[in-house]
Write a structure and sequence with these properties.
two-stranded antiparallel ribbon; little secondary structure; three-stranded parallel beta sheet
């Protein structure tokens, strides 16, 4: 059986060059801990306190981080493919260039988090709160962002091909040069969003609110009824 670290106070602990795959860290306090070249694949960190933790060259493929507190955690370039971060808190966290392919992130709170250059194809971000997050140049192809909050979120140059953004709140979002080809934008709220230079070929914008949005005109449900405007 895997070693159990559940419920333990491991704040400030330094983990280095270890294989901790499948380990149980549920409910543990890892505030300020460091993980350097550690393998945490399929580890269970459900409900763990990971505030300010630094993951350097660390793999968390398939790990469970449901309800974990990752406030201001450092996960730059981390491997989180297939991980479950449902209900996790990551305000101010650095996930720049992280791999979150196929990750489950339902209801995650990512206020002001940095994910620029991250890979999130096929990720589930249903009801996620990404308010003021930096998602510039991210790959969100075929990701599900239904009912997500993307208020004042930076999606400059992001790839959202065939993504589902149905009923998402994208007020004041920055989508310059973003690729939304084939995206489901039904009922999305894009009040005063910046869509200049965005690619919207084949996107379904039925019922979308584009009041004050920059970069589009004459938008309705059919691509034949709207045009992109360069400014």
């Amino acid at each position: 059986m895997p070693e159990r670290f559940s419920g333990r106070d491991l704040s400030g602990h330094a983990f280095s060059q270890a294989d901790l795959s499948g380990m149980d860290f549920t409910g543990s306090n890892l505030t300020g801990a460091t993980f350097v070249r550690v393998k945490l694949d399929h580890a269970d960190l459900t409900g763990a306190i990971l505030r300010g933790v630094r993951f350097t060259h660390t793999s968390l493929v398939g790990a469970r981080l449901c309800g974990a507190d990752l406030t201001r955690a450092w996960l730059r370039g981390a491997s989180l493919a297939g991980a479950d971060l449902s209900g996790a808190k990551t305000p101010g966290a650095n996930l720049r260039q992280a791999d979150l392919s196929g990750a489950t992130m339902t209801g995650i709170w990512m206020y002001s988090a940095t994910l620029s250059g991250a890979r999130l194809p096929h990720a589930s971000l249903v009801r996620a709160d990404l308010t003021r997050a930096d998602l510039g140049e991210t790959d969100l192809s075929r990701a599900d962002l239904s009912a997500a909050r993307l208020i004042e979120t930076d999606l400059t140059g992001a790839r959202l091909v065939d993504a589902v953004l149905r009923d998402a709140d994208m007020l004041w979002a920055r989508l310059r040069q973003a690729n939304l080809a084939g995206a489901d934008l039904r009922g999305v709220r894009l009040f005063q969003a910046d869509l200049r230079g965005a690619h919207l070929e084949g996107a379904d914008m039925t019922g979308a609110d584009l009041a004050g949005a920059k970069g589009v005109s004459g938008v309705s449900g059919s691509p034949d009824d709207w045009t992109e405007v360069e400014e």
